[in-house]
Amino acid sequence: xxxxxxxxxxxxxxxxxxxxxxxxxxxxxxxxxxxxxxxxxxxxxxxxxxxxxxxxxxxxxxxxxxxxxxxxxxxxxxxxxxxxxxxxxxxxxxxxxxxxxxxxxxxxxxxxxxxxxxxxxxxxxxxxxxxxxxxxxxxxxxxxxxxxxxxxxxxxxxxxxxxxxxxxxxxxxxxxxxxxxxxxxxxxxxxxxxxxxxxxxxxxxxxxxxxxxxxxxxxxxxxxxxxxxxxxxxxxxxxxxxxxxxxxxxxxxxxxxxxxxxxxxxxxxxxxxxxxxxxxxxxxxxxxxxxxxxxxxxxxxxxxxxxxxxxxxxxxxxxxxxxxxxxxxxxxxxxxxxxxxxxxxxxxxxxxxxxxxxxxxxxxxxxxxxxxxxxxxxxxxxxxxxxxxxxxxxxxxxxxxxxxxxxxxxxxxxxxxxxxxxxxxxxxxxxxxxxxxxxxxxxxxxxxxxxxxxxxxxxxxxxxxxxxxxxx
Length: 472
Hints:
- The protein is low in regular secondary structure.
- It is 14% helix and 3% strand.
- It has helices spanning 6-9, 36-40, 70-74, 103-107, 136-140, 170-174, 204-208, 237-241, 271-275, 304-308, 337-341, 371-375, 405-409; strands at 4-5, 430-435, 441-445.
- The chain has a 3-stranded antiparallel β-sheet with strand order 1-3-2.
- The chain is extended, with a radius of gyration of 68 Å.
- Mean pLDDT is 77; it is low at 23-28 and 456-472.
């Protein structure tokens, strides 16, 4: 059998041999027609997409229902192992001693200084005698004996009656209930008026406007056209009354459009040139300042603050200890002017003002019919029939015709797999042989033969696949 390369095996036109796989050697003068797209993106066998339109068939189960769920399929139980725990290394003390000396200890050393002495302040002089005198406040604001104020409580004008309240009110005494028949309703009856007499359909329109029989219209005989014998006078009244007058052409009063020409030279003197003449200008005077002369002597740089407030050196202020306050054994007098003037008086409890209801509902139930019940009597009404179309779909016994133009014209067709796309796989019908210097890979086809084993029936033959390689 002859050998064939990938270019000859391919039937779809997308597979080619890798021409000149080495970019430096075997380059040649002819241009390379190999496309990287054909080698990188190899065609894969993909089945045809199924229609997403649901089929008009009931869903039926083919076998017993399976208890395998997505969770059971995806999450399979595995044997758990103990997690790895890192063992911390044992601390080993380094040899030698640690130098604990720091820069802070070297620079800031301890100094032996005597403790500061406490300065005791002189105590305040106290007099053992009792102070006798009257302050100005007590002399000006004396305490007067004022009787306590009486509360101005107004006595209530209304007093509850001592006798018990009667059952009959003024309204019940004046307006005595009388039994009267219910009033006749003035509302018109909604029933249609029925009469035994026939309907009188004679209206004023029918009586006044009587339909009469119209006579036939006379037919006018159309006269035949006869051309005039006298020729037409084309002169109109306007042409006859208003005859044209002959006159000269009117003179044009507009100025002549010819430019003004003069033989005199152009005078360039303007008003601006005559009024604003150029005068000779002199240079402005600039004052020259006097030269700086340094004064004699030295400058006193001392300020008023330096002269008035000279720097004086003195010792720093010493801390003074505050004197200890000795506790007194006398009792605290908490009487103040506020507590003496504004005393707390005992007041009695105020009576609560409660409103008593003026109306008490009767205990006896109402006997009678209300006005609403007597006027508006419930009537039996027949519901109006709805004119809305029925929502039920139109049902037919015939079978639904689902044959569309898409199904008739677009018939699924079987696409053949290119033999070059399955090379070097188990489904390939070619075996790789060799490769030439130009980059062509040659494959040889495989032939399948079936032979029957001796001593067996024809029905029990075994398929024996043998690859017969042809010698080139």
